[in-house]
Specification:
The protein has 11 helices and 4 strands; from the N terminus they run ααββαααααββαααα. With 239 residues, the chain is mainly α. The relative contact order is 0.13. The protein is elongated and about 50 Å long. The protein has helices at 6-24, 33-44, 63-72, 77-89, 109-122, 137-144, 147-150, 166-169, 175-183, 202-205, 208-222, and strands at residues 49-50, 55-56, 152-153, 158-159. α1 (6-24) packs across α4 and α9 crosses α11 (208-222). The protein has 2 domains: 6-122, Cytochrome Bc1 Complex, Chain D, domain 2; 137-222, Cytochrome c-like domain (Cytochrome Bc1 Complex, Chain D, domain 2, Orthogonal Bundle), CATH 1.10.760.
């Protein structure tokens, strides 16, 4: 028997969710989409890519790609919401190993409603992108690539803890050091943080101009000591 593709599995889940919603006659009208966005970035963004959230995780499926077919087929937000809730409550495959499968009930109750409603609103929407943020082009690059999911940075109101606190580790670093920590994060890992958490593809997925804007923004907001374009001794601390 041929193993079903991810797309076929998701379409089947969409159909089941549609039946469940029709039978129940209820939705999640009390869901808070803004809260769902924050929760998604905190709990889900390290594993899943979603353009509107600016997340680039590669452990789990890219949610824009996963739901593009359902969106194109005209499935409603409510149906996609039901699929998301089912996947969170009963993740497949379930192995107990986070590197292989998602932990069950990573969000529950109202939080699950909020996350499901947020994903249902934005997953697979053509042209979706993070909202505009203050602070100039570098701040927008920071937001667009989900840096706040893992890092703390006061200027961006970012409180991520999976990666180093940028206000602390970047102070005094040069342009070259900060830039290298973006494009080659595993070259030098900050003490206490594991390797292979920060994507190593930013050098390809972010344009050179945007990397320059991001680096200058980080230097400006963390009191970096190097000048743009300068090289310096020492090593950056990625993660």
């Amino acid at each position: 028997m041929t193993k079903p593709t991810i797309r076929q599995t998701l379409l089947a889940l969409v159909a089941l969710a549609a039946l469940a919603l029709t039978a129940s006659g209820c939705g999640t009208s009390t869901a808070d989409v803004e809260s769902g966005r924050v929760l998604f970035k905190e709990r889900c963004g390290t594993c899943h890519a979603l353009a509107e959230a600016g997340t680039t995780g590669e452990v789990g499926p890219n949610l824009d790609q996963a739901f593009a077919a359902a969106r194109e087929a005209g499935e409603s937000d409510e149906t996609i919401e039901g699929v998301v809730e089912a996947q969170v409550e009963f993740p497949r495959p379930s192995t107990g190993v986070s590197a292989v499968s998602m932990p069950a009930d990573i969000v529950e109750g109202q939080e699950l409603d909020d996350v499901a409603a947020y994903v249902a609103m934005w997953a697979g929407v053509p042209g979706a992108a993070p909202p505009k943020v203050p602070g100039g082009p570098g701040a927008q690059v920071f937001a667009n690539n989900g840096c706040d999911t893992c890092h703390t940075l006061k200027a961006a109101n970012a409180g991520g803890t999976l990666g180093p606190d940028l206000d602390e580790v970047l102070a005094g670093q040069s342009f070259a050091m900060v830039e290298e920590s973006i494009v080659d994060p595993n070259k030098e890992i900050a003490k206490g943080y594991p390797p292979n958490v920060m994507p190593s593809t930013f050098g390809q997925s972010i344009s050179p101009d945007e990397i320059k804007q991001l680096t200058e923004y980080l230097l400006r907001e963390t009191q970096g000591g190097g000048k743009a374009g300068a090289s310096a001794g020492g090593k950056p601390k990625g993660g």
